[in-house]
Amino acid sequence: MGGISFIIYFLIFLISLLFYILMKRDNREHQKGAKLPPGSLGWPYIGETLQLYSQDPNIFFASKQKRYGEVFKSHILGCPCVMLTSPEAAKFVLVTQAHLFRPTYPKSKERLIGPSAIFFHQGNYHIRLRKLVQGSLSLDAIRNLVADIEATAASASASWVSGQVINTFHEMKKFSFEVGILAIFGNLEAHIREELKKNYFILDKGYNSFPTRIPGTAYKKALEARKRLNKILCEIISERKEKKLLEKDLLGCFLNSKDEKGEVLRDDQIADNIIGVVFAAQDTTASVMTWIVKYLHDEPKLLEAVKAEQKEIRKKNEENNQPLSWAQARNMPVSYKVVLETLRMASIISFTFREAVADVEYKGYLIPKGWKVMPLFRNLHHNPDFFPEPQKFDPTRFEVAPKPNTFMPFGSGVHSCPGNELAKLELLINIHHLVTNFRWEVVGSEGGVQYGPFPVPHKGLPARFWRESTT
Question: Which of 56, 69, 13, 22 is nearest to 41 (CA)?
């Protein structure tokens, strides 16, 4: 045993020494010009990953910013990183010099979503896909989805038993998944929709698990579910092609697209991007909606103001025997400010990953080629210089537009979320449905946040819902 221990410790020493030499050499090479930002790279190989995940990530980032300033280095998830916390730095990486920074994701994630998905690319292919997604999810396109989204909200909550505890986040995920399917496929047959849902939820469960292919593990199950999803999607695509249907949903846009050479998208490219859109839309929107339920519960006066706004809309619709309209969904000022403040306060997308494609200098600091670059959105959204009393939930702060590049809940630049208008519409319609049909009570006094990977209230916010008509 003593010999084995010696070998292990000796190997750790060698790895540590190699890491130290490499970092010193890297530093010497760049000492002639710009210098690396201040900060710590932590332990060899593991860097500061343990510090990041052993505490609230927001505390980790905030303490680093307080100690080192708006630009600092770290080493997490096996990668050296430069972290940026100012509006100017975020704009530099995401907008003005975006060509110097490419989107980057771990290969284990790419395998589950699909290598041809929009957010793994830049250049002409990315531009083409972005135009297609933006076009199918533009204001003109989604205005016709209001009635369907409202019906989906009603269907998603139909099984709730008054007074029974539900996991709010899980229920919101079901709703956001159905809206995503609606935007992609239109009205899909029930049995196909259920097969997609069953396999996607397996994929979703394994997305953040340890990436091993050992049978029975969550990641291996997710890979197998991804293969089944590809088969289902290719069958849907094939049927659409055979029927030559000219639908205006996202799948229709993909199928009807031709590039400047007249080439169409391959089936695998379409399938990867469908999975990508579902992934981008589901957990993020569900997380925001869960926080809205919590914040409204915690702020009774604000809840009453939102109820008054929504019940006035419902009253008019009942008098005229009409459903919720596009014009009404675009005119909910109180509720809309609640959505914006929730996006700021919860900061579902806390940061984004980019990778420098060349040595880049910013404000006298070097960002070496190959290093990850992370604009920290949450730090911006919780900076008291831009948002006074940032820990206070105050929708009225959005009566005045935020300063440029201080509020980026959907990112910024060419890789910003192309479905942000659909997400906001979905949130507003669900608020309308919930406050006009239910009252609710959060179960338990435990606070806290859990990450998976997006922040949600502890345990998914267990709550009891009662239908208003039964009280």
Answer: 22
The pLDDT tens digits for 101-129 are 998 887 888 999 999 999 888 889 999 99
Residue type, 226: R
Q: Tell me, what's the pLDDT at 449?
A: 86
Cβ-contact 72, 323 below 8 angstroms: no
> Residue 78 has which token pair?
């096996």
DSSP-assigned letters across all residues of 5-48: HHHHHHHHHHHHHHHHHHHHHHHHHHTTS-BPPSB---BTTTBT
Mention every residue, 6+ apart, whose C-beta is less than 8 A from residue 240.
Answer: 247, 251, 252, 255
What's the predicted TM-score (pTM) here?
A: 0.88
466 pLDDT exceeds 80?
yes
Phi-psi region of 440 (alpha: psi -120 to 50; beta: other; left: phi over 0): beta
Please give the DSSP secondary-structure letter assigned to residue 324. -
Say how far apart CA 37 and CA 22 lie, in whole Å.
17
pLDDT digit string, tens, across residues 170-218: 999 999 999 999 999 998 999 999 999 999 999 999 987 888 899 999 9
Contact 291, 395 (CB under 8 A): no
**In this structure, are residues 81 and 93 in contact, taking their beta carbons and an 8 Å threshold?**
no
d(CA 231, CA 271): 9
Could you tell me which residues are beta bridge partners of residue 148? none
Please state, in angstroms and rounded to a whole number, the distance separating the CA atoms of residues 398 and 409. 14
